[in-house]
Amino acid sequence: MSDGKRQKRQSSDLLSRREFVKLGGSAVAVLSGGALTSKSSGARRARQPKPKNILIIITDQQHIDTIAAGGCRHVRTPALDRLKKRGVSFTQSYTANPLCSPARSAVFAGRTSSECGVHVNGRPIRSDIPNLGQWFSENTDYETFYAGKWHLPRTYTSNIPGFKVINTGIGGFGYLCDTVMSRACQGFLRNRSKRKPFLLVASFMQPHDICEWLRLNMENPGRLRYPELAGELPELPDNFQFDENEPEAIRRRRAGNEPFRGKAKWNKEHWRYYRWSYYRNIEQVDAEIGRIFQAIEDLGYADETLIVFTADHGEGLAHHQMVRKSSFYDEAVRVPLLLSWPAHIPENRTDTSHLVSGLDIMPTLCDYAGIKAPANMRGASLRAALEGNGRFSRDFIVSEVSSNTGRMVRTQRYKYITYRKDLVEQLFDMKNNPGETKNLATSSAHASMLAEHKKLLKDWERRLDVAPNIPNTDAWWY
């Protein structure tokens, strides 16, 4: 596409005031490797029905174990419970990068964050890589719409290439902007023309508000702020303690987080209070998601809409005494991934075996829409895994942080973590030690396993088309 055409298309992506009123919007790190198989031939694409509509819901900073129907005892999540019971949920689902903008670039482009040129927050996807909205606008009859947080580069913006923006948000606090956004989506759904199918992205800020909570509660007051909560506070996780044989990058990340920065360090009760508060943010965003689901059901779209739910990255949630993101421990790098399309995707099934990635979302949606994915996708269509025909397999996935400074290799049994210029590596047996509390990297009994994972990563890196703007840096963090 020429620069002139691209600029002309982007300038039309924002809904005009007239279009907005007509629609009813009242202002209200991973690359597959080894033997990867996902048989989705062009012939099959031509034969299979397409979903009439596609709804993509993304939350920000959501720990994978935060859905009541998935076993979390600390939350009430009726909307996500309903979605889980109507589709397939993956428990071995990983973000391509445990940081906001880089993770989102991978989801919307199907390429690694280092290839997209989004190694830190607030960077755009490089211009020669199409995003999901651009690709669907050019290759399908779906009308593409976006509401909420974008962050590529701006957090909230009226100009998102490939999408018509129906709501730009009103600030950085989820308890405010998520409510406005969900109502805008309701208005859009209830008033839109039904002549064409739609692809709608609803991107929420919550539970990201936990970051502000951390700033406000950095110093432990020495007592519980609300004594009446004492009997409701969740217990600390089993892996609250950790193996201190860690890379320097992780140690610095922990030391820089709020529990260790205040004059009055957190005690265990304060850690528990933090966990309780995070779960309340989860319940807030679930209520807003429920508004959109209700509109989908009221309008008769439920059976003809493919729904994808995921998060950009997780949350430390006191595991390994970590908060926030940007680490390769499962709590930060594992994310929910649920897909539903009645009569086409099995209902109430939990997939515990397949390794999947945020990079798989774009090729999966292309498959279901009956089109080829863009060239050089680093993920794969999950259709075979979703439909349970046994034709999807994958040896490993990779996630990355801070351009090419740190990377994680996750195989079926092990996880390998390495940081550039750091002699300390990590190797965890995820079958026998899912809490990642025993680093096996220095174990002579696991030397061959360590070497195998290092080779997987080296071979994987050779295939990358790293963006020109990615700095060749030795810095620990950005």
CATH H-level superfamily: Alkaline Phosphatase, subunit A
Shape: globular
How far from one another are the termini? 33 Å
Number of strands: 16
Radius of gyration, CA atoms, in whole angstroms = 22 Å
What is the top-level CATH class? Alpha Beta
Question: Could you say how many structural domains there are in total?
Answer: 1
CATH-defined fold name:
Alkaline Phosphatase, subunit A
Record the strand order, biggest sheet: 6-5-7-2-8-9-3-10
Describe what this molecule looks like in 3D.
The structure is a single chain. The two termini are 33 Å apart. 32% of the residues lie in helices and 15% in strands. Strands 6-5-7-2-8-9-3-10 form an 8-stranded mixed β-sheet, sandwiched between helices. It has one domain: Alkaline Phosphatase, subunit A (3-Layer(aba) Sandwich). It is globular and about 60 Å long. By secondary structure, the protein is of the alpha/beta class. The longest helix has 31 residues. α8 packs parallel to α11.
Summarize, please.
With 478 residues, the protein is an alpha/beta fold.
Task: Give the topology, please.
Blueprint: H1 3-11, H2 17-23, E1 37-38, H3 42-47, E2 53-59, H4 78-85, E3 88-90, E4 93-94, H5 100-109, H6 113-116, H7 132-139, E5 143-148, E6 164-167, H8 174-191, E7 198-203, H9 210-216, H10 248-256, H11 268-298, E8 305-311, H12 330-333, E9 337-340, E10 349-351, E11 356-357, H13 361-369, H14 383-387, E12 392-393, E13 396-401, E14 406-411, E15 414-419, E16 426-429, H15 447-462
Parallel strand pairs: 2-7, 2-8, 3-10, 4-11, 5-6, 5-7
Antiparallel strand pairs: 1-12, 3-9, 8-9, 13-14, 14-15, 15-16
Helix pairs in contact: 8-11
